[in-house]
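Box S2. Input/output pair 1.
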Amino acid sequence: MNEIDVPLFHFNRGQFIEADYQDPLLEVYRNNPLLEALPPIWDDKTVAKNLAHNPSFKISERELPVHLRMHCVQRISREFFRPLSRHLELQQSLSRLIRDGYVGRNPLTPNYAFRARKDAYELILKGNTSGYPVNTPTSAGFALVGISGIGKSSSLMRILQMYPQVILHGKYKGQDMPAPYQIVWLKMDCPHDGSIRGLCLNFLLAVDSLVGTKYYKKNTTKTTDELLPIMAQAAAVHCLGVLVIDEIQNLQEAKDDRAAQMLNFFVQLVNTIGLPVILVGTYKALPALNGEFRNARRNSGQGDATWHPFQKDEEWEWLLQGLWKYQWTDKKGELTPEFINVMFEESQGISDIAIKLFMLTQWRALDKEIEQITPEMVRSVARDRFTLIKPALEALRSGKKQQIQKFADIYDSVSVDDYVDRIEAERRKAERLEVIKTELGYDLKEQTIAEIHGWLIEAGIEEASALKAAQAVALKHLDELDSVDVHKEALKIALHEQNESTASKPRPRSKAKAKLLPTEPSDLRVIVSQGKKQKLAAYESLKVAGYIKNPLEFIG
């Protein structure tokens, strides 16, 4: 136990979902319970909508004491996620990889029964399959490589979590399933010393935590050579869809030829049980990723993914637009071209650094009791707080290869061959960004209209006037929802609309003089009347409308 660094896992049946077999719509995926139990194949719009996540935020929180607002800012790092074109591309690659890997591993075929044997690993390596139809795997996997802080691991984890991790199977078309548990994905870190034995034991412990087996306890004393077939068998028996190994740059620290041995082992996992493998790491991992595993990945057709720092382009501005809504300072600083430039210069397009810089700047403004953040404050915070990474950022800023080479984690040493796919990727990037903007923007607009419309109806506004006012306000203030009182603006428009509509109608003749009702939104009677419909006292209605001030504001 002491010679390896293993995390603690706890078996939890609550993480299971029961199989719900659906038509996968493609013939090659039909009649395979592993594929029919997966979620549908999503389009980019659905992925963008499901990945997007915004921190909880209320304008009223800006009135909280400073020590509480400090905690509010922390939500950004925990909850903010803005889907970008690279995330949609990664999800599509993962979707194809998992499904393609399952094509040749139907648990209802003799192929599965053979691979689930304890000696299958060694027999396949020796070429002795005893007549069993062991299909040649088509999906080897791919590598996801990029600078530290660019969001590789966190993005991949969000995408993996769109899929159930464990599916529980019962009967499929009246037939008992030989494999009750299907582990769709498993993500692990590469051991810090590149130990294959450590990797195997961590894998067995993780499987135990997911399906309640006792692989780890039974095999802690076994050697590496003994553990390899056990790991392969566990992956085959429980129908593992994809194995993700993060921090693969740790192989650079491995002694002797352990890096080559581990990569060769991944190739063997692909060849023996058809298990796709995704390797994730920084640019330090590139030398280790060459060779046989690189050739296997090329043959899979998925293509490796290299995540570079963002450019100062439309996608960078889209990321900041989403981030900029979440400000807990007294006043919101608008996202100006100067802010866009300074955020890029001080982070060099590394998203994690940009998000941390945004948070740190807010914390400083709150601590110093400054009303709002400014570009100068961003520069000051970066100068004071980013001292450890300043040399690396300076190297990126210089654009000089010799300077960048000093920092292995930010040095892009990808060969020319790897840039072939980037040309197509750049084209797809623009297309996907439009999809994201359309889907998320449309969704926000429709939600805003529905919410304002409902509020106006409850306040007693006629249907037609309420809808027209809600649409007008949403169109005008969609980018200012956290700084504009949209209800008040909509009420003004609705009352004016109703007034115009009433004035244009012919008035019925009457001997009695009609009672004139107030219609101006600034009329105190209108404010009190609308407040009553919202179950507010007259005092509270006038206070919300800004006619009653806090007495403390007049002191001093």
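Box S3. Input/output pair 2.
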Amino acid sequence: MRWFGGFSSPSAPPRRPIGGARLWPTMPGCWTVGTWPGNEVRTTWSGTRFVAVVGTCGIAAAELAQLGTGGVPDDVAWRWPGSYTTVEVTRAATRIWTDLGGAWPIYTTPADGGVYWASSSRALAGLTGAGPDLDRLAGWLLAPSVPVLLAERSAFEDIALVPPGHRLTIDGDNSRVNRVWQPRPRAGSPPRRLRNELAAAVAERLATATMLTSDLSGGFDSTALALLAAEQAGPGRIVTGVTVHPAGCNSGRDLDYAWLAAQRPGLAHRLMPLTGEHAPYAALDEVPVTDEPAPSTIAHARFAGQLRWIRDTLGTDCHFTGDGGDSLLCTPPIMLADLVSTGHHRRAVTETMRWARLRRLPTWPLLTTAIRTARTSRVDTLTTLANDLRADTAPMTRSDGDIGWYTTEPVPLWATQAARSRAAALAHGAAARLADLPGGTFATTVTAENMAEVGRSARADIQLAEHAGVLLANPFTDSRVIDAYLSVQLNAMPGPADYKPVLGAALSDLFPAKLAARSTKGDFNPDHYGGMRANLPALHALADGRLAALGLVDPAALRRTLTMTAAGLPVAFSTVEPAIAAEVWLRALADAPRGAWSAIGTRAGAA
């Protein structure tokens, strides 16, 4: 697993990781672990200032040199295309700027009289002996769609997460975090901005990849990336789009849209058939350990199978996914409350009617909910959430039409009172920590928070891909892509009933007409029901596992819930999949060797 890190006192870091660690000769007190392409670790220095840019970044050599001579400005977090972290080391302090999408998460922990920082929380847990953070685990299990509960926490005890779009300053044994970015509405064409930044994000990967591949699912997001890559690949170079499909089924559903998109010159199309071995919930005992439960855990058999296939069949050295596209490009329903709170009443009514028609719900209750949400702070909402989580009765329910600060399911029947109490404490803590927001900023704030969750958790999928020998890239989580899309003004923001119109307009010259007219995503629920039924005995065995031993899950109730879900009864997958993913992660964590660290002066771990 690749990661990088350092210690707050550059002159004498007490320890460093064993196994593949390399000290940076041009970055005092810093190291990398694993194999890194030269274009992903670039450094400069001038006098006593040392600067590193880690990750995919469009910075030019002269611009990098300027950071060393002139210092690092805060907009470095989103100044260039790509997904990267910037580190500055001086005699006075170490400063680190995190990317806007959280795609390169940075973690910290105090130890040895200073502060260690790293891009892997599990690596730091190996340093301190930290175990899983049970409070965070409970919050993730019971309120997975409320990312602010997990903010500033890693999956391990006492390993802190630096939020995206922030500057971390470490001075000796002191550290502080300052926000350097927030959505900035500005005039101009949203489709043009998005097109420019997506194209630049794709170009950065094209510049270094020799065999670039991309998901080509037939949906908007992966198709946009594949088509942009093909457009920019240049004469004689081919980009390969990969579509997975049920074996024996070569048409229908998303596959028809993928066939249409694949007619683009410069885009080769390869099909990977899926069989029973690729079903959801299959082969969960084969999921490698990661920094946190990976989003693809439930579908790991399919995910790992595709990674091996593109590695062995196509020889890919960079593979695109559309992860993050849904969270970024689909306007959250709370935008209706934005319209109410800023006096855009006519449009509020119009967009609420359209949302009601799409969701097949009556209009006036939705409009009432929008008005109520506009008048309810998220601090009050989080306090209510905390009370609902702690209560034995009156479980949480969804907001009507999801027009609320957060979308929540009823508390699962398998959740113990201990799990409820831990999650409730997180909600109370978030209510005390967060400030209320002015009207007109609700939707962009919620989207930015969701993107931070998507980008950080996607790092676990990238770690799984590294385990399979594939470099995975998610351009929708790039800083400039996020900044460009969230700069849209409220009066130009699409309504929640619209299906990604900004991306459709941005790619209007590349999308086939039939794809551009698409207004829904594919439905994979039948695959999940089938996979759950086929693997139900193994899932039942997972119920009596580490979550139960930790007191977070009632195993008998979880088994009943799994049985009901497999039978097709009305139980949301979101109430069972987090429990399965967390149990799989805890087992992989227990089975994997803990990361080892040595004294900095020993030969152990030397490159």
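Caption for Box S3: The chain has 22 helices and 19 strands. Residues 603-607 have pLDDT under 50 and may be disordered.
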